[in-house]
Amino acid sequence: MDMNRVSVRAVVDAMIVVGVVSVGAAWRTTSAQESFPTGQNVVPVFEGWEKNPDGSFNLVFGYFNRNWEEEVDVPVGSDNRIEPGPADQGQPTHFYPRRSRFLFRVRVPQDFGTREVVWSLTTHGKTERTYGTLKPDYFIDDIVIMNNSGAGGMGGGAFNIHGNKPPAVTVAGDKKREVKVGQPVLLTATATDDGMPKRRVNHSSLAAAAAAGAATAPSPASTYVPSRIGSRCCPDSSSGLRLAWFVYRGPAARVTFDPPQFDTWEDYRDGRNSPWSDGWEPPPVPEGGRWNVRVTFSEPGTYVLRAQAHDGGLAAAEDVTLIVTR
Asked: How far, in Å, CA of 308 to CA of 242, rounded?
């Protein structure tokens, strides 16, 4: 397979990023391609399909939150449902800003044919739908996933990613627990990796932005300009084994991680605690590959926390359900 193969979804994402954050005069004017901190809706995304060894298929989904700052919560139900079948088929209910890819899979049988799986999401009064199908153009494999994740650099296919396998991750203890409000709970995840792709620090933005003379002039009041992203148009991520916990279901504002976790969503802005931010370096792997974090909840409810191990190209995850009471 062509190492530079990138999915259609990545091209669409690139067009969005270029339109939103183009350097120079584009920042000085108000246009149809504006960027906002809050108030925008979330778009479900069908990433593509994979074939399983037994002949069945996985339909793979993620999302695009149009906001740069606002995190949105939508419980499973009429505003966050998958059809046909039960409304709950493993989709998230907490939506971080911007792009989160390859988050969950819906398994369909070998004879699925031309049928569709539809994910409907209503936020800020607007309903968006994405349609999971087995159309040939939507076939994905590890190379597509790695290039879309940024392990292959902005052009894709670089840094010898061929043959990479995803990390292995295991969360210690029960996968469903009861805790009290305000009572810290220790979560431990162990992750290992094959050492591919090699550890790499992302340096794709600052020098390019300086060379291009990125605009810093004030923008019209109706346009939100995030901190500089430089001249990047496509995913580019630091690589090397990393692990972070994040809220998959439940209001993240009510959850505190100690130590704080880096962002698992694609924040390209310079100076951010994100693998996609210029200069970000994966933290050292702890002894025995065991990551510990203490989590405290400020309000009762049911939360799903996800431990995601990532090597910059491929990821593996395990979830823990926390039932929080007073």
From this structure: 8
